[in-house]
Amino acid sequence: MGMIKLKNVSKYYYSKGIIASGISRVNLELDAGEFVVITGESGSGKSTLLNVISGLDTYEEGEMYIEGNETSHYTASDFENYRQQYISCIFQSFNLVSSYTVFQNVALAMQIDGCDPAVIRQKVTDIIKKVGLYDFRNRKVSKLSGGQKQRVAIARALAKDTKILVADEPTGNLDSESAEGIVELLTDIASDKLVIVVTHNYEQFKDHATRIIKMHDGKIVEDTGRSVRRAAETVASYGHRSSRGEHRAKKDSITYGTQLKLGVRNTFNLPAKLLLLLLVFLFVISSVSAQYVSVKKQKDTVSEVGWNNYFSNYDPKRIVVEKQDKSAFTRADYEALENAPHVEKLIREDIMYDSSLYIENEELSFYGYVLSTSNLDKTPDLGKMPKAENEVVLAGYDDGWTFGEKPDDFIGKTFTVSVDGSVEHKIKVTGIVILGTGDDMENMYAEGNMIYFSDSLVSEIRKEMYASNSTTALMVNGTEQILYPGSGGLNTNENVPEGYILLPTSFDPMFKEGYAAGKEVELSAKAIYYDQKLKLMIMGTYGEKTFERKTGLKNLEEHDGEIYINEMDYRRLYEKGNFQASVFVDDTKNLEGMKDMLERGGYHTMVLRDHINNFIDEELVNIIQLPIAVIVCLAVFFIAYFVIRLILKSRGVYFATLRMLGMGKEPARRIMRVELVLDCLISYALFMLFIYLNRTGVVNSEKLLDHLTYLTLRDYIILAVILLVMAVLISDRFMRSIFKSSAMGIYREEA
Ligand code: ADP
Ligand code: MG
């Protein structure tokens, strides 16, 4: 049996509902050593026959045998294997890679076969010499003449070194002189291979062909038969072949190194194409990163804009702390916190930081948070630092409103301040810190006005605040009465000794004998941090007549219902240490780390930023912003895909050529991936360069500044991964569309 045998093979073309017959019921047997010329007028089925034999097209009827094996059940990949092993093609349209040099084109077939690079170099050089193109070996194919291109195509077919070489109109585009050379080359090759040439120009081959097949209307109408002379040489040429087979150093298939090399070469060998692709990827990178930034920014904004019902200062850097054992802060605690890394400042009198006080006199008033002068980190802009205990510094915006027209008016003036209107203190303003002008306000968080008091005044005010912030209750004979400090409620009185309490007569009936005096009651003050109880002896009760004598006060009407204890007991009840402080971190980035550190250090923490009631829910960002970002990224993906497909239109022919030379789907896909991933990486590097230039101030763009503030190293890595995945997906999609049609189909589309 011959190398190739066709039995009643028919091939039909289906296009636009019309069935055309390519070849019908063809019988043929071909062998090594033959130089077969197929001829016939245009449309007679020559090309179809050749394509069927070379496995580029399928057939519908009959059977084709390859070295005795049936092929009617062959899958596409079976034919791909067959082509790789048996067939070298020379096309009328050359199908060379025009951006590759002569050498690169010829080497391609051997690289796809996985040959050793040294072997490739040697053999390709030999072949190029043989076809007379040695001087042109490093010239790009696009710069060659038609005759030279045809010789490159032949050289490439020779380099592949297969048993069968097919050529469709190999001299069609050439002048008669070049054609002559080609025919001689083919004749030479035919000595140890099966060479099949399709031509409508029979004259050029008739002196060299060993067999002539003439076609008409899809059928063989004339066949000179197998040449006796050549058939006799067949055995010898087979022997010759097998001895040559060893130094081909052929591996199973193309190596990873070659795939990488081809991908890199494809990336750079067409500068215009590279530039366009880089632009597309820059577009992809900037759109995806813009989306990424906008989601991140939205989340950040959401977590910083809002309000808190209990803490009026919800600076995002603030962490409220209390000790886990609920005890008061000690000096050592303060110092440890103040010296901890990433602590920008420590607010000791935390309870007051969230409470504001009025100071006022006949002309002026000011409203601000209570702080200690120890928190004042700069000297006053106006006036001077306080010295005496009753001197204060004010801090606020010079907006023509906070301090009125002239902030200087406050300096040296005396004001009164009181907590809950009960106790009044006289203070004097010695200095003013200007936080900014009215224009700066919109950039600020809840940083309001502040009043810096001396430490002793701060602790006095704190005591009063605790009194007004705690629940004071009197347990009388099993019933509880809620008291309020101040007029009409609980007060201090010098006439009452420590451990005693003076009550109005209205309390007498609550006791069995109608006498309260000498009985014991329990007075308690409760706040979140403490529950202070005092056991007191009822000193007696006062009525209308005894009021002045027992209390030393006048006008019972003004003091009706008041309860009196000694000053010392009052202090025991309310003069508490500080139970709550605020740590401000230097950067919101460090919030989490600081929180962990504080928790380990024995504090309960509350990161205020996490307890802000937001105008926009963070969930909402996830629900709305995230899907939008994903949709935009998908849109970008498809736009990029179609643009890249347009830019890489000619790659279809390139990959069809690789397939024709026997490359499988996987290596082709990897070569494409290398190219697009490289494009993507270069664009990303350009993008980073741009950001770098922006940072150094060479370029200035607001959008990029956003990137600078919102992207961390981790984000850049995530972005790079997203982009690389996109590049790979685009590449794979592109290859799928290329591999959907057969290699021949792509050539036909291009033609
Ligand atoms: P030749 O190479 O001898 O000119 P072909 O093998 O190209 O002839 O064509 C044989 C027949 O098949 C012709 O009738 C032609 O019209 C038809 N044919 C070839 N290719 C296609 C195709 N892609 N689609 C439809 N019909 C085709
Ligand atoms: Mg043809």
Describe what you observe in this structure.
The model is unreliable at 228-251 (pLDDT under 50). The strands form 6 sheets. The chain has a 7-stranded mixed β-sheet. Strands 6-7-8-3-9-10 form a 6-stranded mixed β-sheet, sandwiched between helices. Strands 14-15-20-17-19-18 form a 6-stranded mixed β-barrel. The protein has 751 residues and is α+β, with helices and mostly antiparallel strands. The protein folds into 5 domains: 31-58 and 81-247, Rossmann fold; 265-299 and 617-750, no CATH class; 306-348 and 578-614, Alpha-Beta Plaits, CATH 3.30.70; 358-452, no CATH class; 470-574, no CATH class. The chain contains 21 helices and 30 strands. Magnesium ion binds at residues 46-47.
Question: What are the salient characteristics of this protein?
Answer:
21 helices; 40% helix; seven-stranded mixed sheet; 5 domains; binds magnesium ion; Rossmann fold; binds adenosine-5'-diphosphate; Alpha-Beta Plaits; rod-shaped; alpha+beta; 30 strands; six-stranded mixed sheet; single chain; 751 residues
Can you describe this structure in just a few lines?
Helices cover 40% and strands 24% of the residues. The protein is α+β, with helices and mostly antiparallel strands and 751 residues long. Helix 8 (256-268) packs across helix 18 (665-696).
